[in-house]
Automatic annotation (TrEMBL), chain A:
Name by which UniProt lists this protein: Beta sliding clamp
Compartment(s) of residence: Cytoplasm
Keywords associated with the record: Cytoplasm, DNA replication, DNA-binding, DNA-directed DNA polymerase, Nucleotidyltransferase, Transferase
Protein species of origin: Roseospira navarrensis
Domain DNA polymerase III beta sliding clamp N-terminal: 1-120
UniProtKB/TrEMBL annotation, chain B:
UniProt xrefs under InterPro entries: DNA_Rep/Repair_Clamp_Loader, P-loop_NTPase
Gene Ontology, cellular component aspect: DNA polymerase III complex
Transmembrane segments: none
GO molecular function, a single term: DNA-directed DNA polymerase activity
Alphabetical UniProt keywords: Nucleotidyltransferase, Transferase
The UniProt record lists the keyword Protein transport: no
Stretches for region Disordered: 1-22
Protein's UniProt keywords contain ATP-binding: no
Protein's name in the database: DNA polymerase III subunit delta
Amino acid sequence: MQLTIERSALLKSLGHIQSVVERRNTIPILSNVKLDARDGALGLNATDMDLEIAESVGSDIAKAGASTAPAHTLYDIVRKLPDGAQVELSLDGEGNHLVLRSGRSRFNLACLPVDEFPAMSAGSYTHSFSVSAADLRGMIDRTRFAISTEETRYYLNGIHLHATTSDGVPVLRAVATDGHRLARVEVPLPDGAAGMPGIIVPRKTVAELRKLIDETGMDVSVSLSDSKIRFAFDDCVMVSKLIDGTFPDYERVIPTDNDKVLEIDAATLGKAVDRVSAISAEKSRAVKMAVEKGQVTLSANSPDAGSAVEEIEASYDASPIEIGFNSRYLLDILGQVEGDAVRLVMADASAPTVIRDVADGSAIYVLMPMRV
Amino acid sequence: MARAPAPDAAADAVPPPRANPDLIGQAAAEAEVLRAWTGGRMSHAWLLTGPKGIGKATLAYRMARFVLSQPAPDEAGGTLFGAPPPPTDLAVPPSDPVFHRVQAGSHGDLRVIEPGFSDAKQAQRDLEAGRAPRRRGEIVVDDVRGLGQFLSLTPAEGGWRVVVIDAADQMNRNAANAVLKVLEEPPRRAILLLVAHNPARLPATIPSRCRRLPLRPLAPADITTLLGRLRPDLTESDRATLAGLARGSIGRALTLARTGGLEVYGELIDLLGQTPRMDVARCHALGDRVARDDDTWALFRDLLPGWLADMARLGATGRPPGDETPSGAAMARLSRAAPLDRWVAVWEKTIHLLGRTEAVHLDRKQAVLATLLLIERAAGRA
């Protein structure tokens, strides 16, 4: 292997892929990045055995070949090279060392054999479609806060993606829940996604994907099967395992016949909840809402700290109701509302409440009240 | 007697189970696994039992490689010339990519659970320097934690997922309970391979959820063959002695060879052959050696009671000493020198004394001298 590559291009790619490489690894090869030089491009590949990021950078290849080298060390070196430098990569005689030359610097890095590098076999993807970066970002941002961290219900530790219809319109839907709250976001169904299997994308993949989306403004092409998902950006491809489980029938927990409709300014409510919750007990963070005609009274009580009350104007016509929420959960949801007003549709103090952005019908949140 | 070469050189000659392509003398167990696989009745959990050093972990990795190199069920569908013939053995050639990745620990569908490192920071330094880090004596719940997450994700290469627990009887109670959860509700297309030297130490709930695969100790001929392959530097007679001492375990034979067991054994037999008048200076010399070195101490604790037990067994069964080795001769002479009950008492006392010495750090040299004296006295009193 022998090639020359521009420092900034190499740095950008290494920056993307080194984030999946864990700092402490008991398996030596997992600390390494796979370098594969052929056909005028250098392929870089890193994995933690659950997800894999591969990137290809155009470079001047004198001799094709492949090897693996320590990812963080390589990234550190390239980061410290001067801007605009040319980097020359080659293997020494036995292929045990990667030699990096740039200007008057020369580095020798220990390599490990390529055939030890984990394979994330692509297999065959059954469905492929392309979705705009903005849509994908919206689906992730508005659902990821609700992903569960509880290990026993592992099938909740991710975002459930599936194709369905909403009011007769085909949609691609993302759902996440931890049993206390649920977030459901939909976008119009992209071409090719019809009939796709319902899958669960793991939390870590969601986080890595989110970082990559920020750097691209283009469409993301998604391919998936029932055991793998692949996201392709400009030059970057991410392949991940999925959660091997069945997402619960979430439709059942979204109430449809709640009748007490409260409309209120999202920002005002958010700030008030934040203030009042300062007083509530450390762990539960409960806030009580007393809703009556035209007004909501927020209150919190703590036997040690004292009490807090705040009144807010609101539009409400149904019979008065008192209902309690976990303030952190409520704030999480209010944080996703982009329009001015939020609509809370309640039934009673012990039944799930539906929360929606008045200006945006694509997202729906369900929050379980607390007994206060 | 030839001195064993430096331990590192010997250890290099013996591949660890994950890198060992050969398995000898366990054809029956392999056949049972293969029958289960081809019959479509592959159990989700196998408990591989048998003494240490007979190839349980080697078989576990062999099963793992075999299962991992089988095509994913949906890919295996119809082919032009009908279904491929069913596999006839578990071997995966070392040139296979699966073999490389299993050896490197980097196969995405294999998870190995072993005792964790006793010191994480030191372990990181050791790994960077290419040394094998020290491990704890037991598997704790932290070592098992990643298992649930591993099995909750889809396979990386599309086929099966395999977990090797080496060794299952090193799991403490919490770790065993964590594994039990997985054993109770195994995900589809996942196989757990539990290696256990001492299955009786496992909580009863674990063996009851596994298919037992007992491995037999190796035949002496197999041990001799393996020694010839792995330690060609040893002489013919050394190999025969080791095969006799190995009790069917190649691991034990190799440990004995590596830690200088032949030499200690030879010295011990020489001394025992001199009873009832042992050379006091040599007894002290042996005591000094044993006191200095942990390996030699372990050898002495193992070899002397073992030899006494063999001798008592000889006295009880009246089986004539078949071999004309110095050990056989000494055994025959001593077993005639005193009644059986006295030798059994000596054996018990020896075990007790050596055990206490280890447990409360008594003077090892004194323990060696005391046990030798005990034997001398028993033999002399007749």
